[in-house]
């Protein structure tokens, strides 16, 4: 009888939690749904009072306007190249640095890590001028290479992976590998990397989305119209005294598709790895 009473007392709490979660999902999804609504209607429909909240039939027309106004696919290719190269390099360099910080003792280790954490607190805009001067000195201004070099080492990525490696890679495995004659890089490649796949999946999503959505740095350093990234190209849709918001939202919707694909691919590995770790821990 007591157990039944306890189960009944838990039901209102569980119902409240489900209601809160459903509301949170609806609030999170609404901006994307509103983007689709705006992209499928006209700007006149958007300005109506009350605004139109149903899907329209003007998506193809708005997409055609986007393609006629900017070099959408060329800019998307530039962004895809930059985001992919940046993500691969961030995963490699950050995981290598994090493994070193987490499992090896060397002079100045604590000081360097404290400096790394301090750099995370600085606004990214402070680095724009020094980075531009550096890119100008090496002759990379206006090229896509100028977008990848500053993003090679991500302070947050090193911090995130270092915390994960400290608890997720047992010292006993590394000691056994050293006894078998494994060097530093073999320990990193054959032992550490397979065990931190969930953390790498999360970092891949973080790095790719950050590179894909970057606007300030590409706007500053890219001077060749043929090398514009997608965010800079989309900003060119705001022309004249009036803005065709339906066309802008169609461009935003088209630019969001690769992000959804990347999130789906890497989120699957992130969830699978996290579930595997939870099952092994039970």
From TrEMBL:
It is a multi-pass membrane protein. The keyword Membrane applies. PROSITE patterns: ABC_TM1 (PS50928). Its main location: membrane. The chain crosses the membrane at residues 15-37, 76-99, 111-134, 140-161, 188-209, 247-267. Residues 76-266 form the ABC transmembrane type-1 domain. The keyword Cell membrane applies. PANTHER family: ABC TRANSPORTER PERMEASE PROTEIN MG189-RELATED, ABC TRANSPORTER PERMEASE PROTEIN MG189-RELATED-RELATED. Belongs to the binding-protein-dependent transport system permease family. This is Carbohydrate ABC transporter permease. The lineage of its organism: Bacteria, Bacillati, Actinomycetota, Actinomycetes, Kitasatosporales.
């Amino acid at each position: 009888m007591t157990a039944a009473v306890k189960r009944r007392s838990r039901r209102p709490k569980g119902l409240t939690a489900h209601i809160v979660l459903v509301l949170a999902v609806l609030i999170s999804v609404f901006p994307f749904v509103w983007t689709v609504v705006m992209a499928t209607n006209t700007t006149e429909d958007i300005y109506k009072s009350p605004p139109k909240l149903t899907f329209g039939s003007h998506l193809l027309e708005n997409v055609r306007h986007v393609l006629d106004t900017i070099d959408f696919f060329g800019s998307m290719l530039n962004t895809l190249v930059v985001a992919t190269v940046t993500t691969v390099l961030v995963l490699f360099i950050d995981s290598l640095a994090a493994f070193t910080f987490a499992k090896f003792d060397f002079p100045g280790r604590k000081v360097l890590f404290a400096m790394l954490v301090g750099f995370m607190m600085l606004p990214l805009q402070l680095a724009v001028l020094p980075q531009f001067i550096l890119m100008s000195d090496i002759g990379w201004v206006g090229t896509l290479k100028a977008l990848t070099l500053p993003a090679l080492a991500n302070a947050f990525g090193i911090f995130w992976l270092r915390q994960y490696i400290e608890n997720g890679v047992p010292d006993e495995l590394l000691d056994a590998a050293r006894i078998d004659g494994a060097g530093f890089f073999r320990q990193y490649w054959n032992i550490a990397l397979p065990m931190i796949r969930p953390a790498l999946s999360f970092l891949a999503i973080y790095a790719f989305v950050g590179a894909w959505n970057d606007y300030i740095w590409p706007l500053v350093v890219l001077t060749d119209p043929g090398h514009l990234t997608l965010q800079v190209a989309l900003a060119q849709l705001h022309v004249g005294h009036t803005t065709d918001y339906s066309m802008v939202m169609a461009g935003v919707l088209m630019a969001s598709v690769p992000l959804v694909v990347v999130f789906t691919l890497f989120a699957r590995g992130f969830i699978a790895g996290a579930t595997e770790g939870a099952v092994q821990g039970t």
